[in-house]
Design brief:
This protein is an alpha+beta fold.
Length: about 375
């Protein structure tokens, strides 16, 4: 007896679970055309796109054929006009569906407006409704995607978030070129226009970004590796190496103690990324030098001054700051703005009466890059 009761209870529970998992079966009726929108057989085409989108969303069991408005009207005792709460139950009985999607569309000026609603054929009540308005038939399919998601209970905000998450998970690679400005002196005495290059690799968890300055007497690169902690922020480590070749005429006037021939600056940066949306990513970082050298001629017989050669108490202070902003224009194109600034203050050479003081600045190095990228995944 107990065994029989257990079996009955199990069957009852399975029925409840099955009912809760069962999908509503729905059909889509050809939408009613109020006026010409510039697309032949627009009512049937729009309905077919809605069917395809509803199948993809997979919330309902969808009849994969469009119910032609004329046939529906003939089979519902000659009823005319758009399908409504009164006629929907008869359609449900004829076609064996629990819900029917119906609607209309029109064009007013340049704007195309499409409205649709899902009606429960058993009660005649509207389950959900949506309306989209747009300009140009090229936007028809993306706007119908919004409409069908709203009919399925997915809001525009949630759909936008889903699309954002999908794009963030893409593996992308690309490159770019731009125009920039570089100076090796914070007083802007020695500066040039630069042509920066960019190589990038983006994924869900790790991003790699390299900005290079291959042309001119101020050259080098900045590379960053970002670890994406969430869809909104991450942390990165960067390495920057800048090499300068001096301009004798300018630098002899700037350094009365000798003629500057050039220098190299190698710096490490740590920072964070902020990503308010898929389209924008902001890098903010600070760091310090790891190996920096200035080269002079006719400087008390010493041709090179290195940060490693200077005493700890000599007042050496190397620092660097960086900021980059990535902005996605569309699925292929984007722009990047960058700003790097480094400085070295109070480099001392010699001791006692031979001590000399030199101030040297690096930057700003800034510019804009246009990038082209492609995706390895959908």
């Amino acid at each position: 007896m107990k065994r029989r009761n257990c079996i009955l209870i199990l069957i009852f529970l399975l029925l409840i679970v099955n009912l809760s998992w069962a999908k509503m079966t729905i059909g889509v009726v050809e939408l009613e055309q109020q006026n010409d929108i510039g697309l032949e057989n627009a009512g049937k085409i729009i309905a077919e796109i809605i069917v395809a989108d509803l199948v993809t969303i997979n919330k309902y069991d969808v009849l994969e054929r469009v119910l032609l408005a004329k046939v529906v009207q003939e089979q519902t005792l000659g009823l005319t006009g758009i399908i409504n709460s009164d006629t929907a139950p008869k359609i449900g009985e004829l076609y064996g569906v629990q819900g029917i999607v119906t609607g209309s569309f029109m064009k007013v000026g340049k704007n195309i407006s499409i409205s649709a609603r899902l009606i429960n054929t058993e009660t005649g009540k509207i389950i959900s409704a949506s309306k989209v308005k747009f300009e140009g038939l090229e936007l028809l399919e993306p706007q119908l995607k919004i409409l069908t998601n709203e009919l399925s209970g997915i809001t525009r905000e949630k759909l936008k978030l889903q699309e954002d998450m999908r794009k963030r998970k893409q593996i992308r690679a690309g490159c770019g070129i731009g125009l920039g400005y570089a100076t090796d002196d914070t007083d802007f005495k020695t500066s040039i226009l630069s042509i920066p290059l960019n190589i990038l690799f983006y994924s869900r968890w790790i991003d790699i970004d390299i900005v290079g300055l291959p042309i001119g007497y101020i050259g080098g690169f900045n590379s960053t590796v970002t670890f994406n902690a969430s869809r909104y922020w991450g942390v990165f480590v960067g390495y920057e190496s800048i090499h300068c070749v001096g301009d004798d005429a300018k630098d002899e006037a700037r350094n009365s103690n000798g003629t500057w021939e050039g220098g190299s600056f190698d710096m490490v940066t740590f920072g964070a990324t902020i990503r308010p949306s898929y389209k924008m990513k902001i890098y903010l970082g600070v760091g310090w030098h790891v190996n920096s050298k200035l080269k002079f001629s006719d400087f008390s017989g010493i041709g090179e001054i290195s940060s490693d050669d200077v005493a700890v108490d000599s007042g050496v202070s190397f620092s660097n700051t960086m900021m980059m902003i990535d902005y996605v224009i569309n699925d292929s194109w984007g722009v990047k703005g960058y700003f790097f600034l480094g400085s070295a203050e109070e480099l001392y050479e010699g001791e006692g009466s031979y001590q000399r003081n030199i101030y040297y600045g690096l930057g700003p190095i800034t510019g804009m890059i246009v990038n082209y990228s492609f995706s390895f995944s959908k």
